Amino acid sequence: MGALDGQTVVFTGAGAGIGRAVVRRYVAEGARVVAVDLSEQVLELTDELGDAVRPLVADVSTWAGNTAAVATALDAWGRLDVFVGNAGITDAARPLEDIPGEQLTGAFGELFGVNVLAPLLGARACLDALIESRGSIIITGSFASTNAAGGGVLYTASKHAVHGVIRQLAYELAPDVRVNGVAPGVAPTRLRGTTALGQTAADSVLDGTREALPLQEIPSVDAYSGLFTMLASRTDGQAMTGVLVTADSGLSVRGIARPGGRV
Predict the structure, then answer these.
(1) pLDDT level of residue 202 (50, 70, 90 thresholds)
(2) What is the distance between the alpha carbons of residues 235 and 61, in angstroms, rounded to a whole number?
(3) Could you tell me which of 226, 229, 231, 230 has the C-alpha nearest to residue 241?
(4) Cross-referenced Pfam families, in alphabetical order (predicted)?
(5) d(CA 230, CA 214)
(6) Which contiguous run of DSSP H or E holds residue 137?
(7) Crossing angle of helices 118-133/153-173, nearest 10°?
(8) Max alpha carbon distance in the chain (Å)?
(9) pLDDT, tens digit, for every residue of 220-235?
(10) Are 30 and 5 in contact (CB under 8 A)?
């Protein structure tokens, strides 16, 4: 018996990286998932995971993309228990002084459109069904949700905003819907850049990252799937709302002289 038996999930940003790993775990735990991504990579999940997954290529920074995901879940399984807003893009740690002023408005709109507006649209589209099922919302934050230097100024601002969205929605939707988040630190994946800044996808792990971490290793994308499962679980996560669970390999306690006391 799985931790998510009988639950139906809408999961954005499911095509690769942490999102794809969590979808695999959700299915293994008994969930049925509408897996949404802008990339057609998400279509591969049906071959891998079978009928427990309904892949959907959609732009979740639009209302239409989110309502299509909800309609897919309700048409296929008649209910919705969890919305996971995981889609996100990066600014490749671009500092403000390196962003030309004429590009700033477009870059801000693009990045906040995916990182902040998209989970709000998804939560709103799923809301009626989640209230009916007394379900939950999970939004992917970041080390940058509570710290500087986890990205550039736009990315850090967007992930701080995600933290605020989690806390406010947890208040607004209590007691009917729990709202939480996961804040990963480092994972071996590629993140889509901000096209308004001329960026493409890039590796998220930079040279020297492992040595800078107190735990001295790069966690796999699978390392985060248990946290997403716990928050979605009606038993393991039942007392949690308004929480952003940090999983940053110790970055927030990193020392000055050395990353960790025994390194």
Answers:
(1) confident
(2) 31
(3) 231
(4) adh_short
(5) 25
(6) strand 136-140
(7) 20
(8) 57
(9) 999 999 999 999 999 9
(10) yes
**Which tokens sit at 162?**
């995600």
Amino acid at 66: N
Can you tell me whether residue 49 is helix, strand or coil?
A: helix
Tokens 């870059």 locate to 107
What average pLDDT does this structure show over 207-213?
89
For the chain, which domains are there?
8-253 (3.40.50.720)
- The overall average pLDDT reported for the chain is 96
Cis ω before 175 (30° cut-off from 0): yes
Burial class (CB in 10 A: 0-12, 13-18, 19+), 90: buried
Cβ(149)–Cβ(206) below 8 Å = no
> Which positions are annotated as active-site residues?
155
Pair of tokens at residue 152: 């550039």
**Residue 194 confidence (pLDDT) above 80:** yes
C-alpha triplet 92, 226, 252: angle, nearest 5°: 45
Over residues 102-149, the pLDDT tens digits come to 999 999 999 999 999 999 999 999 999 999 999 999 999 999 999 999
At 180, phi and psi to the nearest 5? -140, 180
Residues with Cβ within 8 Å of 116's Cβ and at least 6 positions away in sequence, in order, are 158, 161, 162, 165
For the chain, the C-alpha Rg in angstroms (whole number) is 18
Q: How far is 134 from 196, CA to CA, in rounded Å?
A: 39
pTM above 0.70, yes or no: yes
Ranges of beta strands (E only) in 7-127 are 8-12, 32-37, 53-57, 82-85
Tokens 């919705």 map to which residue?
A: 80
